[in-house]
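Why show two proteins at once? Because comparison is the fastest way to build intuition. When a single record is shown, students tend to memorize it. When two are placed side by side, the eye starts asking what differs. So, the first record is below.
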Amino acid sequence: MTDTPTGPAAPVAGSPSPPAPGSGPSVDGRIAAVSAPPVEVRGLVKRYGQLTAVGGVDLTVNGGDVYGYLGPNGAGKTTSLRMMLGLIRPTEGSVRLFGRDPQVTVRALEGVAGFVEAPTFYPYLSGRRNLELLGAFDGGGAPARIDQALEIVELSHRAGDRVGGYSHGMRQRLGIAAALLRDPKLLLLDEPTTGLDPGGMRDMRVLIRRLAGQGITIVLSSHVLTEVEEVCNRVAIVRSGRIVYEGEIADLKRTAGMTYRLSTTDDERALAVCRAQPGISDVRAEGTPPRISFTGDGDSVAELSQALVEAGALIRALTPQTATLEDLFFSLVEDGAGAPAAPDQPPEAVQAAP
């Protein structure tokens, strides 16, 4: 993206907002199912010559989700989002937004907004004027929502300033405001906290929670895992263009099991007891004196406590360690470390809508 576009950014995807998503006719004249999920992707593949940028993505975003799309740089996140918004055509597979294919009908983008990469605006116009142009393009009630959108993203006091003087973080927030003009039912955001200072990141978290509380389904790609853990209920983790996990964050944590740290009066004896105890696994000792760690469920840990006392290794400390999303993320993606990763935006990729 450059700072001198030929037209105002279209962080707002699609045509003027209609009634509710899923309520209009589909391309064959039938009424789209109201129960269709906001996003449904099956077997999504994008190849550029011999390079596979996205290698078979399957995911479903349910209504009301705050859905995190996670992966290291070059994993194929941005390419996937571009295909979801109909900006580039998949090599294989399908995308459905509220039951409609964005490659078949622009009506698939009704009630859908967001931006991919950094939103771009006319730098020589004010923030308000850029929104006015976008609102006029969308029509409907979009122009009347400009003041509210600026207030939500806390840009009211800078609305009259030229966008060329905005910081990167301010342009990100203006991109959110532009998306909100459409009163979206589905919001897709690519790295929305990029360029924000800690206060801005906090405000963005609050904003995302508020929008989700209003019934907006949100999909956001990010590499800031602590942010995702705080705001998302479901995630997809992608590595080298393929999904390695999709589901509830809580379920991912449960499958990891609970890790404990143990310190006793006789750690060498305690280490032997832990390794022999049924239900206790992944026993490790690190450092000098050794710090013992292990995984196990509550009943197994209770039985281990008794076994340690009977063995004469009295417990000084037994501390549960809850796995973070960051821990689980690296456990899923690091076994592919060193493998060539597909770039998110190959040179041949179609640019965002002007």
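Second record. Ask yourself what differs from the first in the token line.
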Amino acid sequence: MTPQRLIALRYLRARHAYGFISLIGYLGIIGLAIGVAALVLTLSVMSGFQDAVEDKVADLDGHLRLATAYGGQSSLPDSVLYWLRQHPAVAAVAPYISRHALVRRGRLSDGVLLFGADWAELRGVVDIESYLTAGKLPLGGDEPVIVLGEKLAATLRAVPGDQVYLFDIDYLLGQQGLRGQAFTVAATFRSGMVEYDQLLAFTALKPAATLFALDSPPAQAILNLKERNQAEELAATFEEGLGFPYYFVSWRERHAALFNWLTGQQLPILVIFGFIALVAVINILSTLVLIVVEKQRDIGILRSIGFSRRRIQQIFLYQGGLVGLLGAGAGVILALALGFLQLKYQILALDADIYFMDALPVKWSWQALVTIPIAAVTLTLMASFWPARRATRVHPAEALRYE
């Protein structure tokens, strides 16, 4: 170990003539640790929150939606569905019917977006079973059974086994009378996203077609991909391959406003928590300046025995670097400890109706665990540069004049 490092370590551990210098130094390390921990936890929570929302949207929406420019007036040919199913990037394809209806039980009623598809194909593109709270998802068949969102079921006071009536809203609004059908509630699901739990309902393809008086095959389809993050790229590829009138909408495009909001929140939050680390760095800077003033006699002695300006500068740069390493290391350990406690015990609970989940999510990001400590140490070294340069300007004769 070089003399510069030994002296830097001694200065770091030594008691100072003025006690407040040590106090400021300790506060700087503690502040840096808190700042690093806050930034790491913030990025981890935001990453966990975004992943949780993405998982739910992809699970209940599918990865790609296929439709035609003619709307529901033209059906999807079997050749198109076969071409998509044979594509190596496609995991499953399910043609579906989706229309608004009025659901009623006794005197209670509400609007619903009815989603009709073959139960076997539906399982491949929509993961309802993971969110079931009561009942069971039908294995197959064309019976008029329905799966309701938990909030919609609560509005209707319906439980599995109860009967509800659905009416075609377009037919009703056209003042053509009533066209409805009775359905038996098979199950309820809870995703934590209000727009799904309050509005969405699933049934088989044939009962949906009967309710809406549709004789032709579905005009839309949901696709699940083997890699959901390739949705936008594959949508362009499929549109080019199939041509007009077919077009695709990815799960991100369907919820663009939500994901843009999540992305837009990251920068201001990081800036706010970054100020904690910045204040700590300023404290470290002031501590080093005070140490330089206090140690002028030591610096003068070192210069008189042959220490160059560069070696004097290295002493205080080493000291600043050690302080940065201590603060950043302690911050990472603190963040890991708090994150582990949250993952294991879910200490911080959330209102699922607002935040789509019942506990604060944490997803560790190696980029955050590496980049933030490195940035903290770099800032500390930069803050140490000016006090180190000031130490090199101490003249031995001036420093030892009154000794």
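One difference worth noting in the second protein: Strands lie at 64-68, 90-105, 108-117, 132-135, 145-149, 163-168, 180-189, 200-203, 220-225, 246-250.
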